[in-house]
Amino acid sequence: MKSLRCLLVIGCLCWSLIAWAVPASTSTAVVLDPAQQQWLEQHRSLRVGLVLQAPFAQFDRRLQQLYGVNVELMNWLGRSLGLDLTWRNFPDQAALERALVAGEVDLAPGLTQTPAGLRLWLFSDPYMRVPQLIVGPRSGAVAVDLEKLGDNERVAVRMPSAVADYLRATYSNLNLQGVPEERQALQLVLSEQARYAVVDEAQLSRLSRESEFSDLAVVGDIGLPQLLRVASRRDWPQLAEILERGLQAIPAKDLEQLHQRWLEPKYPRLSESPGFWQNLGLLLAALLFSCIAIVVWQRRQLRQLEHHLLAARETINQRQAREEALRLSQFSIDQSTVGILWVNWDSHVRYANRAAENMLGYAEGAVVDRPLIDFEPGLHMDRWLELWKGARASNDVALHFETQCLRADGSLLPVDVSLSFLRFRDAEYLVVFLTDVTERRRALAALRESEARLKGIAGNVPGLVFRLERNPAEGELEFPYISEGSEALVGYTPAALQHPDMGLRNLVHPDDRADYHKVQDLALATDRDWSWQGRILTREGEQRWADIKASTRSLGDGRVVWDGVVWDITQSKRAELELARSQEQLRDLSAHLESVREEEKARIAREVHDELGQMLTVLKLETSMCELAYADLDPGLNERLASMKRLIAQLFQLVRDVATALRPPILDAGIASAIEWQARRFEARTQIPCLVQVPENLPPLSDAKAIGLFRILQEALTNVMRHAQAHTVQISLSLDGRTLRLTVIDDGIGFALDENRPTSFGLVGMRERVLMLGGQMTLESEPGEGTSLSVAIPLK
């Protein structure tokens, strides 16, 4: 057993060395207001008073330097605030206070706030907690409850001291034995003259390094910690505020590492323990005896092996069940709708579930290591310590109150707070449960308002308002409510429609009843909302168009209801049908006009090319004859005839361009050749490279579809030239089954499809051409990402 304890001690020492080797966190910047910054610039040199007492502050005469927890704390503050610190050493606190009165000291770390000290100093909030620990023999050590100790169990404590006064006032049953120093109290425990000793953690960390006290262990905490603060001159309140800002900027994990390095007890190495070699010899003897016993007891162990295996399997199953329960518990806490915070004694959050982070408006992990004053501005340190003591004293009884939490965006959130004290893994926490009461109050108010509004709306809606309900026991449907507007809409009274043989289904037109049943049955089977438009018949047989909408909700007793309304949309439906017919006729008319216009363009192109071309040819021939006959007579006439020939050539080109613009002759060679020809003309005009991909063998197209696709391509390239500012253009023509697809892609500046801009008649014209050809057009574009136009035309 002792050997096992030795191995545990070795593991603890290794972990301590690893923790010592991990570098401290980087300093956090201290934010000061302009007035504080100005005051600090004028008082950079400060005098620090230290009471030399291990491990808080000590002087190394060999290295001629100070070290200790208070020295490290002040060095951190000096670096973060840019202070020039001068150290003054004192043998006790009385000498330090005399130096303060004489004006020789500006601040002092590691002091405890007392009524007498408040007359001399200004104290900061506590930056470190030094508990008063109960120390007893390591062998058989268990947690100690001071209230259950008997008169024959003596407790050694330093007297006189505040700890002795606290124990005497709180635990009247204790048999206290006073000693002048903590060392003597521990020696009484070792000599069994006292059962336990009460020593503060700082002194225990100093004494535990000595091998004399290696057999002692911490078995409890009396609950009266010593709170260390930084004291400053009362006539410099600005210095107190600056020091408070600096202390708040110290990360909680840095303070915890400082506490672990200086104040937590550390035990001597195993080789220094007086019983180490004796235990090692006993261990070797036990190993030798075990080897002999293995040979003797082998058969007996074989018989017991099956029993042990079964027991081990059962133990493993139980452990797996406990681990699964633990995982489920952790998942439930993380996913709980109640905010849960674990808070340490210094009011910094150590754990926060996702619900708490959402309530307070912080990102995941942003709540940890923050003080509670960030969420409740009125929760200063003194009030927090009162809550801590109250929850610790009440133990299992939770404290409840309501407050308002400050969220990350500056808004206030009313919450119900429950505090519960928790001891977990040798640490103490205050578990804070947060319940948002805003939504509950808002929901109740909204429910009342909604019910009142629904009653008012249902009584004045110019239609039929209904509620359809399904009985969970019998599964039958019934109408518990139908508004009075049913008579004006369909001529039936609400009572007539509520009859089981009537309902809304019998109002639907016979031709639309199958579609209505399909929609309603699906909604009823899946407990979903449903919507339907169709024809209904009134009591007089009049046909009307109706829009029926119903939304579902579940009641607390398991019932499912659908709240809906029946609107009369006859006029709007008729107008919609008329508008659709009108649009169909206009599109047919537009297609006819476009066909006529293309035919007229082709006719004009032929006449311009044939008739005007012949006349220009004759005119050019006559001019050439005049040049041969009369050019030698007059040099000026020769120049005039040459100018006329150049004008005739330009007119020839103009005629060709006009005829080509009216109807390119290349269309007679097929749409693929026409697309390639148009792309080359676009390249020559704009100097923009144009990549073309067309299939080799295309089925023949009608003249209308070929001209339509060509005009769409012309309009698309015109838009690229005017607006796109593109560097390259890709054109592809592909055959997908019985669909011919034209795609134009540019790498220009693009545009937002949903932005408000003037009507683009080019896009409107392309879309109308596609609709006339029975196809579909898709346009995709984003600013800076170019534009893609895709047109799909059916071959039949």
UniProtKB/TrEMBL annotation:
PROSITE patterns: HIS_KIN, PAC, PAS. It comes from the Bacteria. Residues 450-527 form the PAS domain. Residues 399-449, 530-581 form the PAC domain. It holds the Pfam family PAS_9. The keyword Ligase does not apply. InterPro entries: HATPase_C_sf (IPR036890), HATPase_dom (IPR003594), His_kinase_dom (IPR005467), PAC (IPR001610), PAS (IPR000014), PAS-assoc_C (IPR000700), PAS-like_dom_sf (IPR035965), PAS_fold_3 (IPR013655). GO terms for molecular function: phosphorelay sensor kinase activity; protein dimerization activity. Residues 572-599 form a coiled coil. Residues 1-21 form the signal peptide. Gene3D superfamilies: 1.20.5.1930, Histidine kinase-like ATPase, C-terminal domain, PAS domain, Periplasmic binding protein-like II. Residues 603-796 form the Histidine kinase domain. NCBIfam families: sensory_box (TIGR00229). This is PAS domain S-box protein. It comes from Pseudomonas alkylphenolica.
